[in-house]
Amino acid sequence: MIDILPINTQKTDTSRLESVDFDHIEFGKVFSDHMFAVDFVDGEWQEPHIVPYGDIVVSPANSALHYGQAIFEGMKAYHQADGGVALFRPLDNWARLNVSAQRMCMPEIPEDLFMQGLKELIRLDAQWVPAKPGSSLYIRPFMFATDGFIGVRPSFSYRFIIFTCPVNKYYTKPLRVRFEQTYVRSAEGGAGYAKAAGNYGGAMYPSKLAQDQGYHNLIWTDASEHRYVEESGTMNIVFVLDGKVVTPALSTSILDGITRRSVLALARDMGLTVEERKVSSVEIMEALAAGKLEEAFGVGTAATIATIATIGYEGQDYDLPVAPATAFSHRVRAALDAIRAGEGADIHDWMVRV
Ligand code: COI
Questions:
Q1: Is residue 232 helix, strand or coil?
Q2: pLDDT digits (tens, 9 = 90+) for 158-194
Q3: What pLDDT does 1 receive?
Q4: Cα 200 to middle of ligand 1, angstroms
Q5: Are 164 and 28 in contact (CB under 8 A)?
Q6: pLDDT band for position 4 (50/70/90)?
Q7: Which residues line ligand 1 (CB under 6 A)?
Q8: Which helix (H) or strand (E) holds 330?
Q9: Closest residue (by CA) to atom 6 of ligand 1?
Q10: Domains plus CATH for the chain?
């Protein structure tokens, strides 16, 4: 095991920074100059490296490619009002990565290895953190199996990598989503709570069917009855129902979103009633008909706070009322933006300077 971490750093001699048009970046298509990488071999994490971002060589027989032994995180770094850079809740991402690792029979990552690798990478590529409001540096930590072995058992060796992308918005318009009542993202007892690659691969076909019908995304419902709201795949879902902030309670089939946690904490700070409970599609549609569904929005690292404008239910589309400037989603977005930019009081100690 590595105790003290001298990170072997090989800097690029051809930075791509000058070639990037930061005002017109499409989400996930532009990668910063460097990445952090460390291998797990013989039961131990090996010497960590920072190297120029680029392709990697892996065994074609690794079980990430064949059986989905792969997990990831999504997190962000923000330009600060004083010119510095800070990470939003990085230890929450580290802890959740280890929850996913345990579910997928992968080794846990020690906190110091994760945090030191992350901070050194962000410091080295600090110029890639966009300063424009609404922009950020998206960070993608991930781990995958590397054994060259075709049998079905957990790999003995793994690689953990972090790379980063400057990003603007993931969703550029208010969303059209529909309740999914045929396919299932995850059942209770499955791996839906883990940020495992297969959860996303399995969701692509039903999501594509919805996209072909003009929706951005699905609202997944529970596996046994297709009755209760789960999440939306790229984000958790929050409703404002009759003045209360309501969201599905966590379970083994729902990702424990860090933006979800943050939004609920801020709602409580604002003195609002928060209910984490079962919420059915019928309840949502009845509330909408009765004028009691005030807001619906997705919450996620990439999605941020994504307004839902239209919900599809049993073949019909229903438009939601346009939230006024005083609506919770606008206030919580502004509060989060201020904390992340180092402009609002960070009473929960969410920000970590690099
Ligand atoms: C995130 O919000 O970070 C995600 O991982 C969702 C999506 C981009 C896969």
A1: coil
A2: 999 999 999 999 999 999 999 999 999 999 999 999 9
A3: 43
A4: 10
A5: no
A6: low
A7: 74, 200, 234, 300-303
A8: helix 328-340
A9: 234
A10: 8-167 (3.30.470.10), 175-340 (3.20.10.10)
Q: Determine which residue's CA is closest to atom 9 belonging to ligand 1.
A: 234
Q: Find where tokens 């993931």 sit.
A: 170
Euclidean distance between CA atoms 199 and 271, whole angstroms: 35
CA-nearest residue for atom 5, ligand 1, is 74
Question: Are 236 and 260 spatial neighbours (Cβ–Cβ below 8 Å)?
Answer: yes
Q: Please state the atom number of ligand 1 nearest to the C-alpha of residue 301.
A: 2
State in Å: Cα 286 to ligand 1 middle: 30
Ligand 1 atom closest to the CA of 75, numbered from 1: 3
Helix/strand/coil percent split, the chain, to 5: 25, 30, 45
Which amino acid is present at 189? G
Non-local (6+) Cβ contacts of 285 within 8 A are 311, 313, 318
The secondary element (H helix, E strand) that includes residue 118 is helix 111-124
Integer Cα distance of 313 and 176 in angstroms: 11
Q: Which residues pair with 36 in a beta bridge?
A: 50, 162
Index of the ligand 1 atom closest to the CA of residue 72: 5
